Amino acid sequence: YDGGRQPLTTLAWPLSSAEARTMERLPLTFIRCIDCGHVYNKDFDYAKVPYSDKPNLMFNKGELWQEHLSLIRDRILEHLPENPTVIEIGCGDGHLLKSLADAAPGGRYIGFDPNSAIDTYHGKIEAYPCLFKPEQHMAEYKPDLIISRHVLEHLMNPLGFVQSLSFATAWHRLNTRLFIEVPCIDRVFDTGRTIDFFYEHNSHFTTESLTRLMSRCGSNADFVDRGYDEEVVFAMAKLGSNPEQVENVNQALGFHEQAAKVDSTVRDQLSELYESGQIVAVWGGTGKASAFINRYHVDAERFPIVVDSDPDKAGTFVPGMGQEIHTPDILLNRPVDTIVIATQWRARDIVLEMDRSGIRVSNVLLEYQGKLVDFYGDPHPYKGLQTIRDQLTETT
């Protein structure tokens, strides 16, 4: 849907007719996911929306809307312990938290909203005029429930936001549920209505797209339903039910720590090779091999000899470092002491190619677990089920 260019509609608050007429007009270029039906503005720029300056107010006084809020409150309470800790992100003036505090007065109710004057309701609500930070506040408050109502439609990456909540829950081993409510555009396609699409609402949820989001960030939803004459869709699910998220992060942290150590270890080993007077050739000159050469600063002054199995690369130069790439037969007339295989996954093929071509060296090295290891003598996973020497002996 191309809605042309329109000014901000909910966060502008022009104070004069002239100011209103001269407001910047922004693109309404909405596209739809063909899988889940989600709709979003592909030209949205978050910097154009002054969330830090203006409140995003909702009118909450209508009778039918109040009935909807009462229904939401009751649905939420069915899934909470007797004295829950509840956090609402983007709570506005705190009207839903007040309703929950009345119904379950033994609970703890906390509101985060940097752009609204939160009513503390005679001390029953803890008000924080700041952004909610999952990595900090989930561990600090250990909530039974996170509420996010009419927030996700403003975000550039609503899935990433909810995933951050889910991960923080899993990381800190909490028992937390999430309640989300957003405008629903299911009826847009039935009625042909276009006024739902304005700039501040970047993301537009269908029942299916909200269901998909919840399933990617939690266990099976406690419920997904529509309300207020099907103009809103809401859902609740338990967060943190994906232990693979924690495993992935632990792997990433371990890799990060190891990679920092690898850099200095491999560089030191290469320097020792050079200072020992050994003549070294690097096998592989582009792609992953080039990444190896640049990562460990295998410079052309100390390590000028680079060969590659692909004859088409001969006569070109290693990106970044500048060594000319040769075919391996240069090593027959220009013997070297050590070959460093820069692409571990090709190690077996390279060693077989060396044997077929009659290339003999004292050492064949490759990187494994943060250091250069001997291809023949040291343990590593690139030999296959048979050692290369055994394979060569059988062939002979």
Give the SSE layout.
Layout: E1 2-6, H1 17-21, E2 26-32, E3 39-41, H2 63-77, E4 85-89, H3 95-103, E5 108-112, E6 125-128, H4 134-141, E7 145-149, H5 158-171, E8 177-183, H6 186-191, E9 203-204, H7 207-217, E10 223-227, E11 232-238, H8 243-275, E12 280-283, H9 288-295, E13 305-307, E14 325-326, H10 330-333, E15 338-341, H11 347-357, E16 363-368, E17 371-374, H12 388-395
Parallel strand pairs: 4-5, 4-7, 5-6, 7-8, 12-13, 12-15, 13-14, 15-16
Antiparallel strand pairs: 1-2, 2-3, 3-9, 8-11, 10-11, 16-17
Helix pairs in contact: 2-3, 4-5, 5-7
Your description of this structure?
The chain has 396 residues and is α/β, with parallel strands linked by helices. Helices cover 33% and strands 20% of the residues. It is built from twelve helices and 17 strands. It has helices spanning 17-21, 63-77, 95-103, 134-141, 158-171, 186-191, 207-217, 243-275, 288-295, 330-333, 347-357, 388-395; strands at residues 2-6, 26-32, 39-41, 85-89, 108-112, 125-128, 145-149, 177-183, 203-204, 223-227, 232-238, 280-283, 305-307, 325-326, 338-341, 363-368, 371-374. A seven-stranded mixed β-sheet has the order 6-5-4-7-8-11-10, with helices on both faces. Helix 2 (63-77) packs across helix 3 (95-103), helix 4 (134-141) crosses helix 5 and helix 5 packs parallel to helix 7. The longest helix has 33 residues, at 243-275. The protein is elongated and about 90 Å long. The mean pLDDT is 91.
